[in-house]
Amino acid sequence: MILKTEVIPLEFKRLTLFAGHYGSGKTNIAVNYALLLREQGLPVTVADLDIVNPYFRTLDSEAVFREHGIKLICSQFANSNVDAPAMPKEVYNIIDSRTEYGVLDIGGDDRGALALGRYVPSIIEENDYEMLLVINKARPLTRNAEDTLEVASEMVSACKLPFTGIVNNTNLGPETTEEDVISSMAYAEEVSIALGIPIKMTCCDIKLYEKLKDRVPNLFPLSLQKLYYHLNTEVS
After folding, report:
1. For 30, which of 50, 105, 109, 189 could close a Cys bridge (C-beta 3.0–4.6 Å)?
2. CA–CA separation, 13 vs 92, rounded Å?
3. Alpha-carbon span 174 to 167, nearest angstrom
C-alpha cells in the first residue's frame, strides 16, 4: 500500500475545495484527499455541496469514511431523484469551525458553484483555504485549455471565489495508460499559465503510480471510489 503522505508534499489548508466540470473526477479526489488528511491524524469532515449530479456522490463512500473516523455532511436527498436538494445547515459548522479540517465537493458547473456562494464571505475572512480546479482533458467539454478556462470562469463568476490551484485528473477510467497522463501535462500547464495559478497535483490510478512517479511532479495516486449507482446505458 502506498502512503500518500510519502508521495506528494502538500501544505494542508483548513478548508480544501474541489470544483470541476462533470466527469472531472473531483468527487473521487475529494474522497482520497479526505483520507490523506486523516492519515495525518487530523479531524476531517467532508461536505458534499454538489447539487448538480445525483449519481457520483461522496455518500457512496460513507462506509469508508465511518471506518476512518471521517464525518460526512450531505443532503438527506443525496442519491435520490430530487433535482436540487437543499444544503444542510451543518455546512456552516464546518466553514466556521476553525479547528476541523474540511474537504468540500463543489458542483460541476456555474449552477453547482452557486451553492458555494453563501459560504464564501466566511471562507475569505478566515483565509485558510485552497480552491482547486479539477481538470480532465478526456472529457468532452474540457478537451482543450480554451474550453476549460471558460468552464472555470463560469464557476468563479457564480461563487465569487477564485481558484488557487489546479488538479490535473486527465483519465479514461480503467483504460487510462501512463502515456495518457504524460500527454496531458502540456494541457494542464497551458491552463495553469492562463489562470496564473500552479498545478498542485496530477492524479493517477494507484496502479499506475510506480510507472509515473519519476516522470510526473506532485503525483497523487487515487484509489477509485465505489459507486452506489451503476448506470445502465442499455436501451430497453
Report:
1. 105
2. 17
3. 19
